């Protein structure tokens, strides 16, 4: 499907008052669009104005009926604002800086078009992503290939198209060198590093050359037909101070490379820029406190069959750590980048050290650029009580269509009723795969106005990874369609 460009519109977060500890949907602090569904502990998601406009439209059920359930709706306008927010932080410090859109976070080509229009780069993780980006007009100088596995076909394409490759290991380096020699090319590469030491602890990773053990690589690269363009790394988690440690170690590698005649011009710090899905940090903390109480048997379960979301009760002590994205974070995107750039090392800020070294700082956000760019709609097909008497609400979608590696999607869905009076129920959302574990939400949800076949459920802010990263079509179900917000408004205007 060809996605049309969305006209520019301002991006302002919807203002919703913070919830008190025991607020209920009848409380005026709840925005009316959310009053039909909330968690046992409400986790109210941030909504963009375009999302509210879409969810309020009376013809939304027709749109889903025509295009199928689930249906993904996207908008690129928040992406533009997110990029501008990061660029302004770097520009205010006089830093040479470039954002690369992590293509793997969302498969819609509309976002590649937006990246090209904004003159930012595109980070690709497969041959198809690379070919599609070329087809949309992305220049080779605006691409970097960071695929975890790079076969000869992908490496050959990168060589032929003069695309920089983030080299992860010596086997990749050997194959790249062999292909470059046989084709008469000089390969553009960035060396991917890992194993950084932070606060005297080595950071575990499966990616990259070890920053300490492999330092001799700088003296060996002259044996290969390669041009070292820069240093690349990606750290797990969202710790800004760890990024500082990574940048400092990467600058040491730059010095070593330059001492051996190489001319790296950038350090790429990867992604992991935090975002916050929720309006309220207080309820986020309360949810985990209440979940721990439930696991100790001190209150009724908050989750299906007492699922711990990474936590377990061991001898009346709750241990483990949440297997969840931190859906509420107080230091996000621009402020997080600001903290990194303003950290001082031996009296100089990171931004000053980068400038003095004539290095461009690059980054590859996916989720952070997709913040506010999409939502997923699904139709209610049934409600029933299971053998334990718990209500289950069946949706026409499967759990891979709103999930990453987290155990659960910890944002309250939004129920859009199809009319009529219903009795209130409390239950769980379940999906279309034929397994006992096929729950769309493990959290217990309250439906104060009831729920019935034909209602719609919206999952907010799903563009970053949640729509597509694990998406599958087991049982031969079709994949979800993806529409732009502009296409939806055009449909409504017919």
Automatic annotation (TrEMBL):
Names of the cofactor(s): pyridoxal 5'-phosphate
Pfam families xref list: Orn_Arg_deC_N
A GO MF label: diaminopimelate decarboxylase activity
Keyword DNA repair set for record: no
GO biological process: lysine biosynthetic process via diaminopimelate
Domain Orn/DAP/Arg decarboxylase 2 N-terminal: 96-285
Naturally occurring in which organism (per UniProt): Rubripirellula amarantea
The keyword Lyase is annotated on this UniProt entry: yes
Protein name per Swiss-Prot or TrEMBL: Diaminopimelate decarboxylase
UniProt EC number: 4.1.1.20
Enzyme class at the top of the EC tree: lyase
Keyword annotations: Lyase, Pyridoxal phosphate
């Amino acid at each position: 499907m060809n996605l049309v460009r969305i006209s520019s519109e301002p991006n302002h977060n919807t203002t919703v008052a913070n919830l008190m500890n025991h607020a209920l949907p009848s409380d005026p602090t709840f925005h009316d669009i959310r009053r039909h569904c909330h968690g046992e502990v409400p986790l109210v998601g941030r909504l963009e104005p375009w999302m509210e406009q879409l969810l309020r439209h009376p013809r939304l059920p027709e749109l889903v009926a025509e295009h199928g359930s689930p249906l993904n709706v996207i908008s690129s306008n928040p992406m533009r604002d997110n990029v501008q927010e990061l660029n302004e932080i770097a520009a205010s410090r006089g830093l040479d800086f470039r954002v690369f859109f992590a293509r793997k976070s969302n498969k819609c080509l509309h976002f590649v078009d937006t990246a090209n229009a904004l003159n930012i780069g595109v980070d690709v993780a497969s041959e198809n992503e690379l070919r599609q980006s070329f087809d949309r007009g992305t220049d080779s100088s605006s691409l970097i290939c960071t695929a975890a596995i790079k076969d000869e076909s992908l490496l050959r394409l990168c060589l032929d198209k003069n695309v920089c490759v983030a080299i992860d290991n010596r086997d990749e380096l050997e194959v790249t060198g062999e292909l470059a020699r046989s084709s008469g090319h000089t390969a553009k590469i960035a060396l991917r590093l890992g194993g950084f030491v932070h606060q005297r602890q080595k950071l575990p990773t499966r990616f990259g050359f070890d920053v300490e053990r492999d330092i001799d690589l700088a003296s060996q690269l002259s044996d290969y037909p390669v041009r070292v363009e820069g240093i690349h790394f990606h750290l797990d988690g969202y710790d800004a101070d760890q990024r500082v440690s990574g940048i400092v170690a990467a600058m040491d590698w730059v010095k070593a490379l330059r001492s051996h005649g190489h001319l790296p011009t950038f350090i790429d710090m990867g992604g992991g820029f935090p975002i916050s899905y929720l309006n309220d940090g207080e309820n986020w903390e309360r949810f985990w406190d209440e979940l721990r109480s439930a696991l100790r048997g001190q209150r009724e379960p908050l989750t299906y069959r007492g699922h711990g979301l990474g936590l377990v009760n061991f001898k009346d002590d709750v241990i483990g750590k949440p297997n969840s994205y931190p859906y509420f974070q107080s230091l996000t995107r621009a402020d997080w980048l600001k903290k990194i750039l303003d950290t001082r090392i031996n009296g100089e800020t990171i931004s000053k050290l980068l400038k003095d070294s004539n290095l461009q700082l690059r980054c590859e956000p996916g989720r952070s650029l997709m913040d506010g760019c999409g939502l997923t709609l699904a139709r209610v097909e049934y409600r029933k009580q299971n053998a334990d008497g718990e209500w289950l609400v069946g949706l026409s979608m499967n759990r891979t269509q709103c999930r990453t590696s987290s155990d659960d999607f910890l944002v309250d869905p939004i129920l859009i009723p199809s009319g009529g009076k219903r009795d209130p129920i409390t239950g769980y959302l379940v999906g279309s795969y034929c397994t006992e574990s096929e729950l769309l939400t493990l959290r217990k949800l309250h439906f104060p106005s009831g729920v019935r076949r034909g209602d719609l459920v919206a999952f907010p802010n799903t563009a970053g990874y949640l729509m597509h990263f694990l998406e599958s079509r087991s049982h031969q179900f079709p994949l979800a369609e993806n529409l732009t917000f502009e296409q939806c408004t055009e449909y409504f205007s017919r």
